Here is the input.
Amino acid sequence: MLDKRNRELNRDLSSNQMQMIALGGTIGVGLFMGSSATIKWTGVSVIFAYALAGFVLYLVMRALGEMLFVDPTVGSFANYATKYIHPLAGYLTVWANVFQWLTVGVSETIAVGVYLNYWFPGVPIWVTGVVVLVTLTLANMATVKAYGNMETWFSMIKVVTIILMIILGFMVILLGFGNNWHPIGFSNLWTHGPFFAGGLKGFMFALSIVMTSYQGIEIIGITAGETQDPKHAIVSAIKSIVARILIFYIGAIFVIITIYPWDKLDQVGSPFVETFSRVGITAAAGIINFVMLTAAMSALNSGIFSSSRMLYTLA
Here is the structure.
C-alpha cells in the first residue's frame, strides 16, 4: 500500500532543493520576531536555551532520519506511527499536523498582510494576505517542483540575511565598525545581571518560545517521499542540522546580546533592523520587513505542502 501511494506522486524534488527546504524549515519567523522576547525572559542564558532546544531536535531528527533512510515514504512520521505503534497513533498524528498548520497558516496569512501593508498601506491587510495564500496554493497544486523552487528562494533570502547580519555584527564587536571604530567587545555578556536573569521560570518561558522558533524542521521528513535519490538527500540534510543551528540561531543570538545590553533590547526595537542601521544601511527597516515577509510566506508555503501531504496519506 505504501509503495502504491509513493508511485502516485512524482519524485521531482532535487537533492539541492531538499537541502534548501531543510535549511528554510530551520529558520522561521520566530528568529526574527521572537528573539527579543526570549532574551527579555532569560537574559544571556537564551544562548543555552537555543542550544538545548537544538540538541533535542537533533536527536529527534536523527531518529526520524534513520527511519526515512529505510522507508522514505510520503506520509513520513504519520506512517511510522501507524506501522510501529498503532493505526490510531498515525491517525492522530496526521490530524495534529493538519490542525497545527491550519492555526499557523491563519497567523502567517495575517502576518503576510501586515508586512505587505508596509509598502501598500491603502490595501486592506486581509486582501493582500488572501492573494498570497491563493497564489501559494495554486503553485502547490501545480507541481511539487514549484514548491521546491519557491522554498529554495525563500531559504536563500533568509540565509543570506542572517549570514550578513552575523558578519556585520562581529565587525561591530571586534573592529568597532559603525561605532566610530571603537570595538564593543564582549562585556555585555556579563555586566548586566546573572546568566539566568529570569531564574528557572524565565528560562522555561524562553525555552517554550525557542521551541516554536524551530517549527518547520520536520518538513524534511515529508519531502522524502517526493525527492530524487532520497537516501542521499536525507543523510546530507540530517548531518548538517547541527551546523545550521549553531550558525543561524546561536550565532545570530550571540551577536545580538553581545552588541546590545539584553536588559535594554526593548528600547532597540528589532535587533536585526538596528544592526543593519548601525553600520549605515539606511534601508534596514525595509530590508528586514522583506525578509520577514519571505519567512512568513515560506512558513505558509510549507504549511500548505505539509498538511496536503498528510491529508493525502490519511486518504
About this structure: The radius of gyration is 20 Å.
